[in-house]
Amino acid sequence: MAAVSLSVSNVKPLGDRVFVKVSASEEMTAGGILLPDSAKEKPQVGEITAVGPGKLNDDGSRQKPDISVGDKVLYSKYAGTDIKLGSDEYVLLSEKDILAIVS
Amino acid sequence: MAAVSLSVSNVKPLGDRVFVKVSASEEMTAGGILLPDSAKEKPQVGEITAVGPGKLNDDGSRQKPDISVGDKVLYSKYAGTDIKLGSDEYVLLSEKDILAIVS
Amino acid sequence: MAAVSLSVSNVKPLGDRVFVKVSASEEMTAGGILLPDSAKEKPQVGEITAVGPGKLNDDGSRQKPDISVGDKVLYSKYAGTDIKLGSDEYVLLSEKDILAIVS
Amino acid sequence: MAAVSLSVSNVKPLGDRVFVKVSASEEMTAGGILLPDSAKEKPQVGEITAVGPGKLNDDGSRQKPDISVGDKVLYSKYAGTDIKLGSDEYVLLSEKDILAIVS
Amino acid sequence: MAAVSLSVSNVKPLGDRVFVKVSASEEMTAGGILLPDSAKEKPQVGEITAVGPGKLNDDGSRQKPDISVGDKVLYSKYAGTDIKLGSDEYVLLSEKDILAIVS
Amino acid sequence: MAAVSLSVSNVKPLGDRVFVKVSASEEMTAGGILLPDSAKEKPQVGEITAVGPGKLNDDGSRQKPDISVGDKVLYSKYAGTDIKLGSDEYVLLSEKDILAIVS
Amino acid sequence: MAAVSLSVSNVKPLGDRVFVKVSASEEMTAGGILLPDSAKEKPQVGEITAVGPGKLNDDGSRQKPDISVGDKVLYSKYAGTDIKLGSDEYVLLSEKDILAIVS
C-alpha cells in the first residue's frame, strides 16, 4: 500500500463536516481587539478550508451548508477532531458546532 | 492568511444562535433592585446584540426567533460559549437557553 | 447601554417557561399542615407570577399552558433557574417541571 | 400573598402525574406475607390518591391513564418527588413509573 | 386505609411489564448443565408469572407481548425491580429486558 | 415449579437478539493468522447458534435479520450478556452489536 | 466446530460498517508533511478494505455508503473496534465515524 500524504488540498470532508484552519491567537488581536491572557489560551476562531456535501436528510437529499470556503468562523473549542499538518493546526468540525461567522 | 479581527459588529450567529452582551452585575441593581452578595456572582442578564436566521426545520424552513436585537434577556448561566472582546463579555447562546425577556 | 432593572412585573418568560415566586416554608404550614424539619429545607411550593406563550409545536403552533398566573403549584426542587429579587426568591421553570396545582 | 396550605384533597396532578400515598411497610405484611428486614427498608407500595388528566399526545389529545384513584400500586422506589403531609408520606409519580396494580 | 397484601396472584403488571419468579441457581443445573461458581452468583433465569397488556403504541393500540405466563426466560441481571414475597424472589421487568425463552 | 434446564438447543432469542457461541482464542489462529498476546485476551469472534424473529418495526412487522445460524461473526467485546453452559461460553447479543460476518 | 480463520478478505461488514486498514504513522509523512511527535501517537488515517451494504432505513431500503474500497480516510481515533491480523492493525467503523476522504 502506498503511503497516505495529508495536505490541506486533499482533505474532502464527508456529510455535514467542515475542515477549518485554526487561527493563531496572535492573529485574532491584530484588528485592535485585545484578548485577556486567559482567553488567549482558548483559540476558537478559524477559517473554513473545505466543506462537505451537507447533512444527509431522511429522504436522501442533502442539507446545503450555511458556510463556505473562506469564511472566518467561531466554533466550540471542545468540538471536533484536531489535525496538525506541518506547523499549522486544523480541526474537522460538524457544521452544527460552528457558532457564528465573523466576516 | 490575514488576521481575524473580532468585533461586536462582525459576529453573525448561525442557526438558532444569538450573540448576547453580558450585563455587569452592578447594572442589574441600578433600578433599585438589590441583589444579595451570592447572586452578584451569577450574572445571568444580558442584551441581545445579534440574532441568527433561526433554527432549521426538518422541511428546510426556518423557525423565526422570538427575540430581537436590543432585547434584555435572562439566560441560563452555564449555557453557551463565553467570548471576551476588549473589556466586555459576550456569550453565544442557543435561543432555547434564553429563559425570559426583561423588557 | 442602560442598566437592566429586574422586577417582577417586567419578566416575560419565553416558550414553555413560567416564572414562579417561591413560597417561604413557614407559609406552607399556615393551614395547619405540619412539615417535619427535614422537609422544611426543601421548599417546592410556589405561586405562578408569569406564564410564557407555551411550547412551540413542530408545526409552528403553540401548546397552550395548563397553568395560569396565580396558581399555587408544586414543582421539582432541582429544576429551573433561581432568581432573587430583593428579599424574594423566584424560579424560572419549564412547565413540564410543574408537578401539581395545589388550589 | 396568602399562605399555601398543602392537604391531600387539594393536590391536583398535572399531565401524566399521579399522587400516591406511600404505604407503611408494616401494612404490607398484614395479609400474611412476610417481608425480610432488608426489604422493609424499601417501601414501594402505595395507594393512588389523585390522577392527572393524562399525558399530552402530539396531536393535543390526552392519553387516558391506566390507573384510578384507590388503586394499590407498586412503583419504582427511586422515582418521583417525595412529599410529607403531617405524618403521612406521599409521592408524585409519572404514570410510567408505576409498575403494577396490586388489587 | 386498609393494609396492602402483596401476593403472587394479585400483582397485575402495567404496560409492557412482566412479573417474573426468579429461579434459584440450584434449579438451573438440574438438567445436567453444570454452572461454574462465578456464574452461580448471577441468576438470570426465571418463570413468567404475570404479563401486562403490552406497550402502548403511539396510536393508542397495544403491542401484544411475545411471552406468556409459564414461559421460562433469560433476562438481564441488572434490569427491573426486585420484589421479595415470603422466601421467593420476583422481579418486575420490561418485556424488552427479556433476552430469550428457554423452553 | 420444575427446574429450568439451560442447554444450547432450548435457548430461543427474542426480538433482534442472537445467541452466539464464543470461539476460543486458540481457534481464531488456526488458519495461520497469528494474533499477538494482547489481542488473545479479547475474543470477539463467535458462531451464531440461534437467531430471534427480528426487531419489531413500528408498524408491527419484523425486520428480517441479516445473519443466520452457522455464520461466524465479529462482535463488540463489551456488548451483550455472557452465559456459560458447561465449559462453553455463549453471549446473547442484539443484532446491531454484530460488526461483520467472517465467512 | 471448525476453527474461525480471520483474514482481510473474509471480513464482510454488516449495515453501515466499514473495515479499515490503519496506516502506520510513518507512512502519513511520506508526502513531505511532517507530523510533530505528539501527533504521531494518534494515527487517524486508514484505507477502506471493505464496505457494508449501508445503513438500513426505516422503510427497509439501504442508505448507499459515501465511501468505497480503496479510499484513504480520516476517522475519529476513539471510534470503532480495533482488530489485529498478523502485524497489521484494522478497525471496524461505522460510516458516520469517517470524517473525510484524503484522496
From TrEMBL, chains A, B, C, D, E, F, G:
Could you tell me which Pfam families the record lists for this protein?
Cpn10
- Molecular function GO labels: ATP binding; metal ion binding; protein folding chaperone; protein-folding chaperone binding; unfolded protein binding
Keyword set includes Chaperone: yes
Give the superkingdom in one word. Bacteria
Q: Where in the cell is it found?
A: Cytoplasm
**Key word Cytoplasm present in the record?**
yes
Q: Matching PROSITE patterns, A to Z? A: CHAPERONINS_CPN10 (PS00681)
Keyword set, alphabetical order: Chaperone, Cytoplasm
Matching entries from SMART domains are given as:
Cpn10
Which GO terms of the cellular component aspect does the record hold? Answer: cytoplasm
Its function, per the record, reads: Together with the chaperonin GroEL, plays an essential role in assisting protein folding. The GroEL-GroES system forms a nano-cage that allows encapsulation of the non-native substrate proteins and provides a physical environment optimized to promote and accelerate protein folding. GroES binds to the apical surface of the GroEL ring, thereby capping the opening of the GroEL channel.
Quaternary state and interactors: Heptamer of 7 subunits arranged in a ring. Interacts with the chaperonin GroEL.
HAMAP family to which the protein is assigned, alphabetical: CH10
Q: Which family does it belong to?
A: Belongs to the GroES chaperonin family.
The name under which this protein is listed is Co-chaperonin GroES
Q: What is the lineage of its organism?
A: Bacteria, Bacillati, Cyanobacteriota, Cyanophyceae, Nodosilineales
